[in-house]
Amino acid sequence: MQLSGGNDGLNTVVPHKHEAYRAARPTLRIDSSDVLAIDAELGLHPACRPLADALEAGQLGIVQGVGYDQPNRSHFESMDIWHSCRRKEDRGQEGWLGRAFDLNGGAAARDPVGIFLGESKLPASLVARSTPVPSIDSPERFRLQGQDAEALTTALSGMSSPADSTAPTGEAAALAEFLERSTGAALEASRRIEAALASGKAVEGYPATRLAEKLSTVGRLIEAGLSTRVFYVELDGFDTHSQQADAHRGLLEQWSGALGAFLKDLADIGRLDDTVVVSFSEFGRRVAENASEGTDHGAAAPLFLAGGRVAGGLHGAHPSLTDLDDGDLKFHTDFRSVYATLLEQWLGWDASPALGGRFESLPLLRS
Amino acid sequence: MTSPTAIRSASANGASNVWEPFRPDVDGAWDERRVRHLVRRAAFGAGPELIETLVEMTPDDAIERLLTGTPDEATRQSESDALARTILASGDPKRLGAWWTYELITTTHPLRERMTLFWHGHFATGGDKVTDAEALYRQNRLLRDEALGNFRTMTHAIAKDPAMLVYLDSVTNRKAHPNENFARELMELFCLGEGNYSEADVQQLARCFTGWEIRQGKFRFNRYQHDDGEKSIFGRRSTFPDAEAVDWVLAHPAAPRFVASKLIRLFVTDAMPTDDELEPIAELLVEHDWNLLPAVRTILRSRRLLGDETIGTKVRSPVDLIIGLLRSFDGTANASRLADDLRRMGMGLFFPPNVKGWDGGRTWINAATLLERANGIGRLLQDDATRFDRRPVGEHLMARFGDDDDSLGKLAEVLLAVRPNDATLARLAAVGEGRSGAARAVARMHALAASPLAQLG
User: Fold this and answer.
1) Nearest-CA distance A230 → chain B (Å)
2) Domain residue limits, chain A
3) To 5 degrees, how large is the angle CA A217–CA A222–CA A228?
4) Where are the alpha helices (DSSP H) in B228-317?
5) Cβ atoms of A117 and A217 closer than 8 Å
6) What is the mean pLDDT of each successive set of 10 residues along chain B, which is 457 residues long?
7) Model pTM?
8) Is B394 on the interface with A (CB under 8 A)?
9) Are A176 and B456 inside 8 Å of each other by CB?
């Protein structure tokens, strides 16, 4: 789950008693009486009740102080760093998951190895060289419509290279091949997903939000036995430069509400132990609030893991609120160590080639 | 194969200029295929009459014709204004896309419209946050007025544009806590590109815009909240009074290269331009004090754009695909339904994905958008409101192309940059089998326009 825009980690996992926090956040601070206690020092934002319940049940792990060296405060650049694990200078097209898909037989898999449920463009982390990764807005829309649907599927699926004497080669031919491959993969994915969802039934208990709707669809695809390894969803809007309090509460409610319902759904279908839900954002926000009762782009932030086999509770210390880097929290855990843990211990794939280097695994999962 | 002529002209200047004009007969024939390519890149598409006119002109004259457009028609203008007034009276930014779609279908200056859309992606501002439809509409007019005008003028206007400042949370901007958002995006996304400034530059530039506010939908300078102290930006110390900071950002050497890169990617290629491609266009922008016309004219006239090797090398955006299709047939359609379908294909007008606008190129394409393209084209062609040259779609197709074996090939020449081979055409022609003339022609066109090669421009 990608929380886009830069989630305010400080008001998600709140150091409510700390004087430096209270002083830096005169209008935005959350009081001790309101937080959902994690331990004596830290508490969750009051909108995160479903997360507090998951924490209680040992199904939520909070990795603190996650980030990277020389943080970039541009949304796009920082998100690209999280997606590609590369700095701008040596970045290709592919993302860390896309590279892992390519290296682990993604191109030949019967079901798409990764699926993005969202209306925006495919997140760069999922971009692969040879593995098709479909985006699905809503399952009903994810198929050809009308009386010609069947004939169209046949007509559009075939591959052909333009074989005309005037046809350009090089760039245009490569692009044509890309489009034909993408079209074929889209039609095949549409067929498989339609078949998977045809057998499932609607599940109660999800809040009425887009995010919850998507997670409910993910639940049905998991229940139907699709062999997909990664489902990717996004919640946008965390760029709270002004009037943050209400907006942030609403976002955290959507996030934790949908996540809580998803965990319950997975437990009901007996798949909670097979699933880990990772929630991250491209950066946290500045410690000091700004003049618009909002916060500007920051650096280190907490990352969240949920599921039946995560090591519950806090991992790592809360970053110092007084030893700051240009007004921002300093990271102590590289996000690529979290990725390495997920690749090696969860997906069973070699992490180094996907991440472009060796990163230490962390004890975030239970075997 | 290298021709002796090409070698001579390249060595004459010591180095080859990639933007040398296209010369018919040396570089290739100035024929219908090439004119259709130019029109796809510069003006979405054009009906048979305009294509024929442009083929008969010289390349330079044809390009001037596209750069100038034709004078607006009074009835078209009044219908457009009436539609805008109705939508603005509703106050709903979601409906503005219908008005712009109407403009795109009917405009007598499609190149200016294409540039307006480009600037909308460049200075992206979205109705998800700017709920004031009037402000978005006014920004759209600003972008249209300067679409082929002056980038400096446009940037200054955008810096005080209510819709932009609302979008970037800069409705208030107080001295004690400068809001960094606009300052950052001015450098990162509007003028320089990431990596050409430091975090300190962002913080210093942000101070220059303190006191810039929006009150009752209008820009206002609040001198009590303005930080008039000395700032240091890119190593220069000054108080940067008025909007001098905007000019100082534009004076950065990265600025003309940044804008040149975006113009080249708009017209020529989805790849990142090379230094050889960037430098001459950047120089033109500087030489003409940010006037856009000379740079755009040079790009459009060039062999780099008009040469065979460039045809079919860009992924068409949803607007290029759909508006191109309609304009190629002098078509009209229900603008409101069309705007909804453009949004589903990933290009909601007035609703760019974020402040970076649309990334374009291969990012237009994924499984969902491909299916939306196919379904949206089907809905458009089967919609009773859709007319090709004032006639129902099927009727027009039958009259113009007939329904013999070659009809789909002739249609492909009008619609596609890259001609499919015979086997592909035969497969596409099988769609709609068993139906009668006009209905079958529509089904076949649907298959052709939804096919992979139709997404190339």
Assistant:
1) 16
2) 2-157+167-355
3) 105
4) 244-250, 254-267, 275-287, 293-301, 303-306
5) yes
6) 37 66 95 98 97 98 97 94 96 96 98 98 94 97 98 98 93 89 95 95 96 94 96 97 96 98 98 96 98 98 96 97 98 98 95 90 88 96 97 97 90 94 92 91 96 96
7) 0.81
8) no
9) yes
Candidates A74, A156, A297; nearest CB to B450: A156
Question: Are B368 and A166 a contacting pair at CB < 8 A?
Answer: no
Residues of B with CB below 8 A from A190's CB? Answer: 367, 371
Query: Distance between CA atoms of A68 and A282, rounded to whole angstroms?
Result: 10
**B302 — contact with chain A (CB < 8 Å)?**
no
Q: Are strands B331-332 and A276-281 parallel, antiparallel or unpaired?
A: unpaired
Q: Name the residue among B179, B363, B423 with its Cβ closest to that of A241.
A: B179
Chain A contact present for B101, CB below 8 A: no
pLDDT of residue A200: 64
Tens digits of residue pLDDT in B37-90: 999 999 999 999 999 999 999 999 999 999 999 999 999 999 999 999 999 999
> CA B88, B90, B91, B92 torsion: positive or negative?
negative
Round to whole Å and give the CA distance between B43 and B109.
8
Bridge pairing between strands B212-215 and A135-136: unpaired
CA distance readout (Å), B33 to A163, A167, A321, B28, B450:
17, 11, 65, 11, 21
Q: Report the C-alpha gap between A169 and A174 in whole angstroms.
A: 8
Ranges of residues in chain A with a pLDDT under 70 are 160-169, 199-200
- Tell which phi-psi region holds residue B169, choosing left (phi > 0), alpha (psi between -120 and 50) or beta: left
The top-level CATH class assigned to A2-157+167-355 is alpha beta
- Confidence (pLDDT) at A133: 86
Contacts of B157 (CB under 8 A, 6+ apart): B142, B146
What is residue A130's predicted lDDT score, i.e. its pLDDT? 80
- Domain spans of chain B, in order of start: 318-455
Asked if residues B204 and B248 have their Cβ atoms less than 8 Å apart, the reply is: no
pLDDT of residue A160: 67
Q: Which of residues 123-182 of B touch A (CB under 8 A)?
A: 168-169, 171-174, 176-181
User: Which residue, among B169, B107, B161, has the nearest Cα to B138 in the 3D structure?
Assistant: B161
pLDDT at A167: 53
Which chain B residues in 362-391 lie under 8 Å from chain A, judged by CB atoms? Answer: 362-372, 374-375, 378, 382
Q: Do B421 and A294 touch (CB under 8 A)?
A: no
Nearest to B353 among A121, A134, A292 (CB): A121
Distance CA B114, CA B296 (A): 12
The residue among B375, B381, B373 whose CA lies nearest residue B452 is B373
Cβ–Cβ below 8 Å for B419 and A167? yes
* The pLDDT value given to residue A191: 87
Which tokens sit at A129? Answer: 């060289």
In chain A, which residues have their Cβ closer than 8 Å to the Cβ of B364?
Answer: 121
Contact between chains at A144 and B374 (C-beta distance less than 8 A): yes
Within a 10 A sphere around the Cβ of A187, how many other Cβ atoms? 20
